[in-house]
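Example 4.3 (complexes with small molecules)
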Amino acid sequence: MYINFVVVIMSKLTDTHCHLQHDRFKDDLNEVIDETEKNLAFTIVSGANKEWNRKAIDISKKSKNIYATIGLHPIDAEKMSEKEFQEELKFVEENKDNLVGIGEIGLDFHWEKDEKMRDLQKERFVRFLNLSKNLNLPVVIHSWDAEIEVLDILEKEKMKKVVMHCFSGNLELMEKALELGYYISISTIILRSKSTRKLARDCPLEKMLLETDAPYLWLDGKRNVPWNTEYAAEKIAKIRKITKDEVLEATLNNAKKIFGI
Ligand SMILES: [Zn+2]
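Answer. The structure with zinc ion bound is encoded below.
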């Protein structure tokens, strides 16, 4: 009699932020989903506008290893009428059971220079934060050239469960985010960004997450894919002089904890 031992090696790889609903995945989405199932413990698809929010939920339903967060990129949020914005808040609320978080939401002062529009971004950001508190979901923060304002608002609103997506602030701002108990998500941009390498060196391992922001942030404008977080993990391990497995294990546990997976 033969006994077959099937050795199942569970992957510890995660991608906590990507956009598989992007057009660059439309021709081979099912293959990409198969690959993420094979290679990653889990993947989180993030919405950023009306269309992407609906698609993020659809994609998360195709696989038990894919989860969704939905929200509005600040530039998309500011462009909506009050009625449209309210409808989107309602859509988030109605879908709360399909979500592991709200985002991306935040402030983008890189693309918005007008003070009145920046104020509108802030107002709508706070309304999303209040919704997340009501629904008890973590928030995934987009912030570009607005890190100081974002952290001030998060602190004022007493936010506890926060992920700084693709954090691009300096070390001092990272310190502030860490003091507030927030998670720092290191993207594959680490392969070509010196400032991200500095953040990855100083961020405590128990506050670090991995992401691709796929299809963005890969090399030479090529399409990024969720399993490329492995290269980010390799880089972080090298910088910190630890093993890749330690990075993968810590980031997996962190992602489970903050997103309740
Ligand atoms: Zn993104």
